[in-house]
Sequence to fold (334 residues):
Amino acid sequence: MRHHLVLRVVTKMLIPPILLFALYVQFHGDFGPGGGFQAGVIFAAGFILYSLVFGLETARRTVPIGVLRFLIAFGFLLYALVGVAGLILGGNYLDYSVLASTPTAGQHLGVLVIELGVGITVAAVMVAIFFSFAGRSPKIRDEDW
Amino acid sequence: MTFLALTAFYVIKLRHLFAVVMLSGVFSLLSAALLVQLDAVDVAFTEAAVGAGISTVLMLGTMTLTARREKIPNGTAILPLLVVIITGAALVYGTLDMPDFGDASAPSHGHVVPEYIEGTRDIFKIPNVVTAILASYRGFDTLGEVGVVFTAGIGVLVLLTSGSTSRGRRKGKGTKPQSDEKGGEGEGA
Fold:
């Protein structure tokens, strides 16, 4: 799709707001609709748009598959370790009240961190699945559609 | 609702798979609008992002690997139609016993929900009850969901990446060798 000038310019303008919106959804999930799952998918959508317009190889150089593998596991572990941190500090597993000085602050912190873990895993999995599927596709020309 | 039914009808009727994929995206977007009408913005958000966005892209990606047109089925499908009609009728009959939409005395609003709402107001002090329930009250559920996503991702990577790396390497040798790519693949293999 290298010759689609309009698409490329519009995509360049759109990707930063998409990523910013994903971060907003991620960290504003306590106060408005949204959370880790939605934010992760939106973040991944930004990368997928990038690789659709600028080519899969460029996108793969931006986010190598090794980094994706690491992030997939990292998000999940972050979530699970927050639970373990609660255990160590004397609460139940996944009880966030003991994470900070007051239960309210602890719950805020816990929810924020586990949502971050969810977001990282979901975004990485979505991009990885897209790369795996798109990596198998034969080269298609625009006329094929 | 009418639009939903119309879209579903055309998804069944059309044979051109590109149009079908696009229409299923439209279907997801319409469902998201319906969920907003029902004040379920969190679910609508997910439906719009996952259903209309990611799955459409993945379906298109899959379609490039296969044919563009559906095969014409031979023979009619009386028995499946009958099963679908009976199941649908049973589901509609079941909804007749459900409490009215927004009924405060509905059983689902009486069990643990008051505790959740009070807890969110007094302990969490955040406006979005959905986030509090999802992340804290039902933290184990959400951990399990992330586990499902994790497993799905690992499964796809294991099943699909091994084939595509070997092909990518052959392609890379044929056209232009890129040093960083080769290094990454070497580590992966």
User: Anything to note?
Assistant: The two ends of chain B are 50 Å apart (CA to CA). Chain B touches chain A through 55 residues (CB under 8 Å). Chain B is about 75% helix and 0% strand.
